[in-house]
Amino acid sequence: MAELDSEGKHGITLSTGRLESLADGIFAFAMTLLIMSLIFPDTVPESANMEVQDLLFGQADKFINYAMSFILLAVFWLAHHQQFHYIKRTDSRLLWINIFLLMFVTLVPFSTDIVGDFSGQTNAEVLFAVNLLMLGLLFWANWVYATRNHRLVDPELRREIIARGTRRNLVTPAVSLIVLVLSFFIPQWSPWLYLSIPVMLSIGPFRR
């Protein structure tokens, strides 16, 4: 039986089930769309006499961007799953935070495709960095809003867990901001910093 709306001290709250289902579907769709950035051109000049390995090596940058974006989306999906392990209910503000969050999730395949087509160019790297920066900030906002004064989490949730979650959700915005700045100076190398995100999330101060 569907869970009824309830009136708490913060107003009307709702079950998280539908929001989590929507997020799972959008993450799955965005991760699947990433493969579209690897489609080969429909025509190959006959004079080029290109073989399969030439086409594959010619798209090496796109393969790297695909793998990196897929891993980052997986990290974001895990973060969303982990947050909603603690978030027990939602309200209209949290729903809108998540709607905007998912909007930037669906933008990742597009920004990945742009980076693949214009690898090493500042504008392309800036677009991708801004995409991840906005995603990271929205994940941070989602956690802070839900946990402030235990608004939408268990009243017994320990403050150390809340603080660790806040630190975890600042990793992606911090790294994305660094990449954004470096994109104006070394756009061909700055994206490699994204690999530090899953590494940092696995060490002591940030580990779940």
Helices and strands, with pairings:
Blueprint (H helix, E strand, L loop, with lengths): L5 E3 L2 E3 L3 H17 L18 H7 L1 H27 L5 H26 L4 H26 L11 H24 L13 H6 L7
Antiparallel strand pairs: 1-2
Helix pairs in contact: 1-3, 1-4, 3-4, 3-5, 4-5, 5-6
Structure explained in plain terms:
64% of the residues lie in helices and 3% in strands. With 208 residues, the protein is mainly alpha-helical. It has one domain. A two-stranded antiparallel ribbon has the order 1-2. Helix 1 packs antiparallel against helix 3 and helix 1 packs parallel to helix 4. The chain starts with 5 loop residues before the first strand and ends in a 7-residue tail after the last helix. The N terminus is likely disordered.
Uncertain regions spanning at least 5 consecutive residues: 1-10
What global shape is seen? Answer: globular
Could you give a short account of the major beta sheet?
A: 2 strands, antiparallel
Number of strands: 2
Content of β-strand: under 5%
Give the rounded overall mean pLDDT: 87
Portion of residues within helices: 55-70%
Order of helices and strands: EEHHHHHHH
Distance between the termini: 32 Å
Task: Briefly note the structural class of the backbone.
Answer: mainly alpha
Keywords:
2 strands; disordered N terminus; mainly alpha; globular; 7 helices; two-stranded antiparallel ribbon; 208 residues; 3% strand; 64% helix
Give a quick precis of the structure.
This protein is 64% helix and 3% strand. It is mostly helical and 208 residues long. It has one domain (14-201).
